[in-house]
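Quick one, tokens below. Sequence please?
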């Protein structure tokens, strides 16, 4: 064992005449432990919440959407505008699907319509709904939203008995609020504009289209945003309800988010893509939310780092008092020719010993607590308030854990440097003058 390590260890563990220094050292150790642990937990919460929102917006591997934007073109006549509002033309769809066939990472895609409307049940009245008309076969390849139904089957949307009503799959909360179950008949209605804008008489501008359907499935995601408002129809039934042969969007899933991002940029600037198509993922519509999460993460990190800095300043006090208490020892060591760097290393090592112990304990407590809490989902949340969250998620980022630990140790080294240098510069004559 090196001389400076031996002395530093003796100073830390030996019984002192001034127990107050030991108390300050203990406070420093506990403070660093709590600060590092709290920062790891806070960062894990932010990472978990951001990942939950991102998964809700673009899925686990990335989901891209193509929407028609023809309705915003002012040079279209009334008929073209009406068709534009109904979705992509067959020619546009052919171009898009051909592009997707040659896109690296595109795993599956499906054609969809989405129309707002209402569901009417004889038992409990009316509920607003977002009707999503899908092709069950391609939709199941592109999304797992309806992979596990609470009741019924996805194939029941297409495999209907002769002379039966069209099928509909409802979200769990919507079905519960309406008081319906499998086999219950419902009335659905959507509004369709007859012209580019409303006329003075609303009845001339808006056409109400209705259809009788039967509940063939109930899905549950645990997210009220979907379970309370979404309802799924077969694509042909949805187009018949709207009186059109057009689809309003194309949903594409990828093998990874990175591939989705690369494909998005390539497709957006592809000159062969239809001018009528806009390409987005739902991060584009939620930039404010994601920026707010990033800002909150930065603010939390800054505040907890200040706490660690304050704790580190306690270590300065402890080391300064240690230098004052050990002035006689320092004088003796310097009179025997001990180099300045060795004396400086003794007191830096004392501070770093406290920092290393506190950082290790804080990392173990923070990371371990985050992993256990996330694994057992100990903190439950009301998903009607937080929408995409039914419990508080924790996600540990190893890089951030390493940066927190490194930052704590660097901060401790910087704060220990001043009292260590003061000890190294002490004049042995002055140190021994009154002893």
């Amino acid at each position: 064992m090196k001389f400076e390590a031996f002395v530093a260890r003796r100073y830390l563990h030996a019984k002192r005449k001034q127990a107050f220094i030991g108390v300050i050292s203990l406070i420093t150790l506990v403070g660093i432990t709590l600060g590092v642990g709290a920062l790891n937990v806070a960062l894990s919460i932010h990472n978990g919440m951001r990942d939950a929102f991102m998964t809700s917006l673009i899925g686990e591997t990335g989901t891209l959407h193509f929407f028609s934007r023809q309705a915003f073109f002012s040079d279209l006549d009334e008929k073209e505008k009406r068709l534009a509002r109904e979705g992509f033309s067959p020619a546009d769809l052919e171009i898009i699907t051909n592009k997707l066939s040659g896109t690296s990472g595109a795993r599956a895609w499906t054609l969809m319509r989405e129309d707002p409307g209402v569901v009417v049940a004889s038992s409990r009245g009316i509920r607003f709904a977002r009707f999503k008309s899908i092709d069950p076969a391609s939709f199941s390849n592109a999304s797992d939203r309806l992979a596990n139904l609470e009741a019924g089957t996805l194939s029941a949307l297409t495999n209907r008995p002769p002379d039966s009503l069209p099928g509909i799959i409802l979200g769990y909360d919507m079905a519960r609020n309406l008081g319906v179950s499998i086999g219950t008949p419902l009335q659905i209605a959507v509004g369709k504009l007859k012209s580019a804008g409303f006329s003075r008489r609303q009845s001339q501008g808006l056409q109400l289209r209705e259809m009788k359907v039967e509940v063939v499935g109930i899905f549950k995601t645990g997210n009220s945003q979907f379970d309370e408002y979404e309802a799924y129809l077969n694509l042909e039934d949805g187009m018949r309800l709207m009186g059109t042969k057009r689809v309003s969007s194309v949903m594409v899933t990828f093998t990874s988010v990175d591939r989705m991002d690369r494909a998005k940029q390539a497709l957006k600037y592809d000159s062969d893509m239809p001018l009528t198509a806009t390409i987005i993922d739902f991060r584009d519509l939620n930039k404010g939310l994601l920026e707010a999460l990033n800002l909150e993460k930065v603010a939390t990190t800054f505040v907890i780092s200040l706490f660690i800095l304050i704790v580190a300043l306690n270590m300065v006090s402890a080391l300064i008092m240690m230098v004052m208490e050990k002035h006689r020892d320092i004088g003796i060591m310097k009179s025997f020719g001990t180099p300045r760097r060795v004396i400086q290393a003794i007191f830096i090592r004392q501070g770093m010993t406290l920092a290393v112990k506190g950082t290790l304990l804080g990392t173990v407590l923070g990371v371990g607590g985050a992993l256990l809490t996330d694994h057992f989902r100990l903190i439950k949340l009301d998903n009607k308030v937080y929408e995409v969250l039914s419990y508080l998620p924790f996600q540990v980022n190893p890089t951030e854990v390493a940066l927190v630990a490194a930052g704590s140790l660097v901060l401790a080294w910087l704060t220990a440097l001043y009292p260590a240098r003061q000890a190294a510069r002490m004049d042995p004559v002055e140190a021994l003058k009154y002893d």
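The chain has 16 helices and ten strands. The mean pLDDT is 87.
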